[in-house]
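Running this now, will post back.
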Amino acid sequence: MRICMVFPRTTMFENPMVYPPLGLFVIKAVLQEHGHSVDYFDMSEFTVETDGTRITKRENPPLGYDAYMIGGTSPQAQEIMRLARFLRDNDCLVIGGGPHVTNNAGPATTTGLSIVSSVENIDSIKEKSRKSLLETFHLLIKYEGERAVLKALERLEEAQKRMKIFGQGIVIEEPLIPQAEMGEIPIPDREYADQYKAYLEDSAGNIYPTTTMFSSRGCPERCAFCDSPALWGRAMRYAPMDRVQEELQDINDRGFKGVYFYDDILFLNKKRAMELYDKLHSFGFVSRGNMRTDVIAKDHYGFSFLEHMRDRGLVDVFVGVESGSNQIKANIHKGTTIEQDSLVLKWCKELGIKFKASVIFGLPGETKETMEATKRWVLENRPDKVNACLFIPFSGIPIVKGVNLARGIQIDDDRAKQYGQDAIHDYDIQWSHTTDELEQYFYAGSRKPGAMRALVSTSAVSAQEIQDSFDDFLRDLEKEKIPF
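Update: finished.
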């Protein structure tokens, strides 16, 4: 079968052609392993004219394939739906997957038609999103797709008939791949990875062409603003080291000299992390990883562990600080303290490891004082870079699920329900925007100062006050020459 794989255009980054969509690259490898021909298109790909102008290469993917696969996240929802409708209008078979579909597609069915819930107090906004997906895609794949995608291809003819008769597609999900079978996941097909231009820089200023990699899946934490555990599960599942070695060899053979690990918590298993970095060191790679400061601050980790990792190529870390207030951290079940953040940042500075701190304004329980605490921490501690965000209540996250459950709104997704039930809580946060409005805002929103808009309020601060505080923060970062 000839398959066209499409990654929708995104505007959430000033330059979207930096990090490739690894999930699609893995699915591409699975399909090719089973004899299918796959072409891949990133709709953000552009050409650069002589005057420096970026011109997007294409508006839509080419027609003529046997089936199309579209995968993406909620910030790309507008484009996911536009592309799917374009393909349907041209009589194409369309399969959707990724986090946006997972969070909005509704329950999976193994027999019969996927039914849209008619529970009286169902969240009407989520209902609209689910209905739209079901009426647009022939097949929707929830959660991990390596096995579900093959089942989807087997049911394409059935899905086509059901769409014609009933006007709705089919939702498919498979159980998460168990630890014992993680070694069976094929290496992502990085044939198109050279379209993306990512780099890491060491403390001496040397630049390394970089690509991305997962060495594990899952996250045991319960951060209320993040949907990763709901998508990947809480149990950590690790790729076997021989499989890791094979993928590192592939990355090296393709000319990359840096690896950005997308693992939710790269260093959670200390023994494995050290073994992983020994392998990185053998290739001469530099690396970046996502890090929790409560892990690194433990006695059996500490400064010496970071130093060991630095000596084996760790040059950059991404840390979710989220807030300078321990109360806000507690409100969102972050599990770290600002004191731990400060300590680990200090160690990174001493070791020459770049520290990128992510902070969010507008979290549950936010006050003027907590926002000032966040500003103060950043300006006093001066991380190497800041990922400055305004909270957006997308449907897949525990805050939204917790609020819905606490207010008696039904959730018809069993896994999502179990995830939300862990902490049913009517968080101190409010919003009035529909899903469509949120998606339109996020898709159109630039990351530049003054272009982002606060969409939530709390009992202590209005959306405008959150907006004003955030804009002041960006101006302070510019003034202090702290990159963001």
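Residues 198-480 form a domain with the pyruvate-formate lyase- activating enzyme fold (CATH 3.80.30.20). More later if anyone needs it.
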